Amino acid sequence: MLKLRINGQLRAVTSAPDTPLAYVLRDEFKLKGTKIGCGLEQCGACTVLADDEAVQSCATPAAVFEGRAITTIEGLSQTPEGKRVQQAFVAQRAAQCGYCTAGLVVAVTSLLRTQGAFDRATAQTALRGHLCRCGSHPRVLAAAEAAQKGDG
Amino acid sequence: MSLTVYPFVRDWLRVAQGRLVLRTGKVDIGQRISTALMRIAAEELSLPIDRIDVAPVRTGDSPDEGITSGSNSIQQTGQAQRLACATARGAALLRAAEGFGVDVAALDLAEGLVRHRGSNKQISVLDLLSELADDLKVDPEAPSRALNTALGDAPPRGLRAMVEGTFAYLHDLERPGMLHARIVRPPVLDAVLIDIDPDPLHRAQAAGLQIIRDGSFLAVAGTPEWAVVRGAEKLSAACNWDIGTGLETGDVFEVMAERDAERLTVVNGFPETSLRLPEPIETPDFEATFKRPYTLHGALAPSAALAEFKAGQLEILTHSQGIYPLRDSIADSLAMAPEDVVVEHAPGSGCYGHNAADDVAFETALIARALPDRPVLLKYTRADEHAREPVGPAMAVSVRASLDDEGEVAALWMEARGDTFRGRPRAGPNRAGAARLAANRARDADIPRFVPEPNMNRHAGLHRNLDPIYAFADKRLVKALVPDLPLRSSALRCLGATANILALESMMDSLAGRAGADPISYRQRHLEDRRAAAVLDRLQDMLKRPPFLGEGAGRGIAYAQYKNAMTRVGVAVDLTVQECGAVRLDHVRLAADAGRVVDADGLRAQLEGGVLQGASWALHEEVHWGPSGRETLDWDSYPVLRFDEVPKITIEVIGGGDAPSVGAGEASPPPTVAAIANGIFAATGLRLYRLPLNADAIMTAALQE
Ligand code: FES
Ligand code: FES
After folding, report:
1. Half-sphere exposure (CA, 13 Å, Cβ side) for A65?
2. Which residue of A23, A25, A43 sits with most ligand 1 atoms within 8 Å of its CB, as the best mutation to test the pocket?
3. Which residues span the domain enclosing B514?
4. What is the pLDDT of residues B431-443, one digit of tens each?
5. Is residue B304 a part of any domain in this protein?
């Protein structure tokens, strides 16, 4: 049986083997912080961490993530970097409807872990795969910058 | 006005379990109306904001305030709420004075307490409010308290939960025994389902999936969610559809130019049936037609709804912008009594107008009715949303202007042409509410086809901002409604203002150039409104530095006041047209006057979000289709603005003093679109007449030069 490490816990997966990770997280484990906006790996709403890498979870079968440490937005809320990024998002008011937000918090946290210091242009390129239809982009970029400086 | 139908203070606020509960018919769709209402109540009643809630918006309980749209929330529900709170404060103070046996003038109200100066008597304002008489009427003259600026830092409602992933969207809800559902999408709305291959059908049923069919409406329900997604895909491959003649193709602007239109003269923002159509200007000094294609709302979350049918009653959770009109349309479609249909709002993602929310709510009801006593959560897929949502109509705006000796506009003829923005389900003749729900075109239900009528309201539909804000002596304005164009259309943020302001501000830009005038002062020469001039002065101050004049760089200016009555916005866009023809936005500066500011950060967020949505429309967005349906079914074929295209944005808001608060949700996109077009002209000398202004359009225009 498939076992996945999700937010630090090894969990047995009973969903059908072709089930994409996002559906396993949301439907089987009730981790609804991971959103589905397209199911086509085109919008970034479903972004989670696989180890420290930001990956889209809506179309790739969960089994592909075996052996990697999956962290969802719920798990990130328990980590210092995650909290720092969330605090920066709150301080910058970096959400309107908020549907894109969890995916962006995950992506910015990954950036922080993998890049250390980065500039605005790097963040803009890194977030290219994330859509926001409400136009919260400038605040997200400001939050990324603030989180990086540690002054969320 | 909301207060004529709901005249009592208790229609707007009540006390429950030691908390103030505000009631509103307007729904929170990311524009933070609930935050604004809580601030208003906190100001008027000197209550800490964390003692205030906003009640669920639900038919039967909430005031019926129609549809949340047109940036009207602050003016309608906000004003009603302010007056209700101010009336309640006055009554509460009187009651306290009586109780203490003192004069009202000797009482202070602060931090939720009424205190008597000179004794230690005090009482909580919530206690006083809970004792207000049921028949206390809102006093339309109740004096408002001064703005309490200390409230400015309260975080918007739900923000913390959004960043932690715990904010519950409709899509995330769970109910005991709940089934997931997906529709099996027909290629076009009017397609007829001829038959379904029996083998895949039986396999789906054997796997425990429920298949719901009503005429040509087809859906799958069951658990787990992924099985339903796959089941609907497989069933879709097994369906044989007859699309009839399919969608009409060809250049929609040519089609609408040739087709009979219902044409009306527009005066002071109102279409007039009794006036003759104005003569076009025979030998204009400036003449052009500006075009905007069909545009998606493209909500980040595909539409969803949750419904349950129990003991003859339907209960529906929806992210629709109009719970009462939707309830009535669903009740009519299903021949149910309106009281037997309860519609409650639950948050979805931002919607930017009338998207598939209402259609999905009805389709969920159809599925739930077929599966009584089981809650059903229907979600559209991304392709369903892109294929079925009612789009913003294609619009063509023609202008002809003649100039006086100074190069100023002496006369302007302008015609806004296109299909309707009024696709929302809303009761009307010929069962117009039911007729506008997509699934009724597929069901075996005898509902007449919807025929749009021109919107006769001030600055509505196609003629929103058709009437120029400029003081031209001779204005000849025409609205031309062309029904039955290929795609079903409805309200998209800003309605006709986007195309009308693009036309008008492109013209002003060209004429300023021709007159050898600076674009800001040329506009000011035509403006009588003092506050408009002040906004443009502020914009001028923000532009102290001249534009960067490198290769392909340019600065575009535009001005608009939404509906000629709401937020005034001046925009300057510095951009670069790159070698490949693609536009890079470098810096957008915006000056605005929105009257009295209730939620300063919310206001800036709305303006900023509008700039980026306008930029996305201007540079990228266009729906494509063929005879057998829409072809832009994902985010690759329908590109939108991305993070790496986001410019620097600088916003300055002119404090409007005591001028009434006006909505800003739709104020910034139209002038942003126009300023981008003008920036491209400044950068390249190319005047573009059709959105989107993408690399293809610019390269094509350059080749034609
Ligand atoms: S939901 Fe996965 S990328 Fe859109
Ligand atoms: S905040 Fe609504 S999509 Fe990003």
Report:
1. 34
2. A43
3. 497-704
4. 999 999 999 999 9
5. yes
